[in-house]
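Cross-posted from the bioinformatics board.
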Amino acid sequence: MPAYHLWYWPTIQGRGEFIRLPLEAAGIRYRDRAREDGVEALLADMDWRQGRAPFAPPYLALDGLVVAQVANILAYLAQMHDLAPTTLADRLWLQQVQLTVADLVAEVHNVHHPVAAGEYYEDQKAEAARAAAQFRAERIPKFLAYFDVAAAANPRSPWLVDERWTYADCSLFQLVEGLRYMFPRRMAAIEGDYPHLLAVHDAVAALPGIKAYRASDRRLPFNQEGIFRHYPELDAA
Amino acid sequence: MPAYHLWYWPTIQGRGEFIRLPLEAAGIRYRDRAREDGVEALLADMDWRQGRAPFAPPYLALDGLVVAQVANILAYLAQMHDLAPTTLADRLWLQQVQLTVADLVAEVHNVHHPVAAGEYYEDQKAEAARAAAQFRAERIPKFLAYFDVAAAANPRSPWLVDERWTYADCSLFQLVEGLRYMFPRRMAAIEGDYPHLLAVHDAVAALPGIKAYRASDRRLPFNQEGIFRHYPELDAA
């Protein structure tokens, strides 16, 4: 099978990381096109596409098929590569978890860009401080408690479904990593309350494909351009 | 087939409306449980569910299966009721459009609640004014242009795919309705630039099931508690 072409911003983990992780965990071949050819290549590729085009990266291209939106890409990969459970109820459940991760990711971005996605953080610091306070106090515990109960719902393994990993497990791993980077003091204070979620995180971290990926230069570090950004003034225990 | 149980806040269109519309258009039987039994019944039902539970309404229940997250519910209904196209590429495309609608809906909510989802609009009016200015100037045209190109990609009919309506067409209808309610001056100024999107809107409005629904008391009016809210101070041409 030829390699997928993954198109995403080349300098950040961002939403693209939710695609990279299961590709790496499953050993599926892909080319991270904008990392190979630069951001100009991504902009040119976006500009060229019309009609059934992506609204934004990430998107995955193969043989004329273009799939965009993270949860949609993941459901597609799961179906094509036997990475999903076989029952309808299980597949709906994983997609439900993934879409709830997506909701949290959008809220995370909103913390540092509450009033103007197109302007700099520095121009909305006061609003971001207010957004971060509520996010730390109310939203993080609400989401983490939810994912902890979700993880605990499967007594057979640390995974969300059955006895093997899925894309949604990878996404929970990335969520914990990102929140630890963005809110180290808050996470240190509360993450122990969510042992089932941390068990998913640790099980994903122990997958051979994920270990190899994180040891490689393919795994970009978190930075101040992505979704999860560490602004110390937005963190507190 | 027994009626679905739809659980959603009983006094708003909100995200639940994206489920109600295709149910009504297709004539699928459902009970809008919190409208029948009150918001306390919804809260009690949420409270009772553990494990594979919804994070938030809306969710759909039938025979022990519970499906949450709007796009996930819609894909499920399309599959179960032959409301989706048959090719994988078409199904991925519709879900991609739906998830982009979901992104816009989240941004719309953020306009009137930019810094604290749990607090009142009145306590974040200054921030909302700033968020609305950018949303009107940049985000509305960007999203509407995207959906217009998406609608134009199918030359065979006003619909997004083939020659029949799907849930994503219904969602584009609701988006236009909601934006007209929330930003009447802005929409009057620019909506004519998106004729293919408006053609989808008008085609959905003309479906017999939708006409009957809108003429009934099942269709709640827009109000100041839902996603789309009309605060005149946030609108401008």
